[in-house]
Automatic annotation (TrEMBL):
Sorted UniProt keywords: DNA-binding, Transcription, Transcription regulation
UniProt cross-references to Pfam families, sorted A to Z: AraC_binding, HTH_18
Statement: the UniProt record of this protein carries the keyword Transcription: yes
Transcription regulation is among the record's keywords: yes
The species this protein was found in: Citrobacter amalonaticus
Domain HTH araC/xylS-type: 167-264
Gene Ontology MF terms in the entry: DNA-binding transcription factor activity; sequence-specific DNA binding
PANTHER family from the UniProt entry: HTH-TYPE TRANSCRIPTIONAL ACTIVATOR RHAS-RELATED, TRANSCRIPTIONAL REGULATORY PROTEIN
Highest taxon of the lineage: Bacteria
UniProt name for this protein: AraC family transcriptional regulator
Length: 267
């Protein structure tokens, strides 16, 4: 039986509005998105990913980045590892003192930048070895932001806006992901067939309505866990049937368990 290689460390939050994660895993990640900007270095291995500019490949030494709401996945060629910083988008924009809305700043999905790679690796080395205080770590994160924002943004605007049908379904799900929903109900909401809904939603969003619902529930669960609520309670509050269903969906999307996330983010 093939061994499941999966090691992940979500570090206790040392800087507000920044999640810090290291991962070494052979698992594939399904299409999903984050609420934050992500900046990291590919430490070993390689993978193919779907992004807002199509399929991209990342290998050892590359910088990998994601934008808030950008649908992406991760298909590895074998065990691969990375170190990532996930930064609140408001913080990113504010640090740039920019009048641009968050969705107008778009980071490239994969770049080769030895300078930024060294910055990220130095940050993680000092973090794990307790070599720096909080102020020094905060400064290093801002230097990473400056390097990425200055050299690795896309000037093109995002893709075609969602159709009114897809936008309505997305908003309906996002407004109350904890509610019990059916494909029939969502299709009726838009006066189209279930087949039309799945086809249109998948084409425009990059995932099915059910996959998007699970992602929204995981996002809600993260918010509740960060407030210190118990995992067993969060499962029901976020719309999952029980704790095991929450754990499965949470780990599939984030690579970590709800308990690991709660431990890292709760003061």
């Amino acid at each position: 039986m093939k061994k499941d290689i999966h090691q992940v460390n979500l570090y206790r939050r040392v800087v507000p509005d920044v999640e810090i994660l290291s991962l070494y895993s052979a698992r594939a990640f399904p299409r999903h998105s984050h609420d934050q900007f992500g900046i990291g270095v590919f430490a070993q291995g390689s993978q193919r990913s779907w992004s807002n500019i199509g399929n991209v490949n990342a290998v050892t030494g590359d910088i990998i980045m994601v934008n808030p709401g950008e649908i992406h996945d991760g298909i590895p060629a074998g065990p691969r590892g990375w170190h990532m910083l996930y930064i609140n988008p408001d913080v990113f924009i504010n640090e740039w003192n920019s009048d641009l809305p968050t969705d107008a700043l778009i980071l490239k999905p994969v770049v080769h930048d030895p300078v930024l790679g060294l910055m990220v690796r130095q940050f993680f080395r000092q973090l794990t070895n307790n070599e720096s205080d909080t102020m020094a770590l905060e400064e290093m994160i801002l230097r990473c932001l400056m390097q990425a924002g200055k050299h690795h943004t896309l000037t093109a605007t995002r893709g075609i806006p969602y159709s009114s049908t897809v936008r309505r379904v997305k908003e309906f799900i996002d407004d109350a992901p904890e509610e019990n929903m059916t494909l029939t109900g969502l299709a009726t909401l838009c006066d189209i067939s279930r087949f039309q809904l799945i086809r249109r939603f998948s084409r425009e969003v990059g995932m099915t309505p059910h996959a998007y619902l699970l992602q929204s529930r995981v996002r809600l669960a993260k918010k509740l866990l960060s407030q210190g609520k118990r995992t067993v309670d969060v499962a029901l509050m976020a719309g999952f049937t029980d704790q095991s269903h929450l754990t499965h969906a949470f780990q599939k999307q984030t690579g970590i368990t709800p308990g690991q996330y709660r431990t890292a983010v709760v003061e």
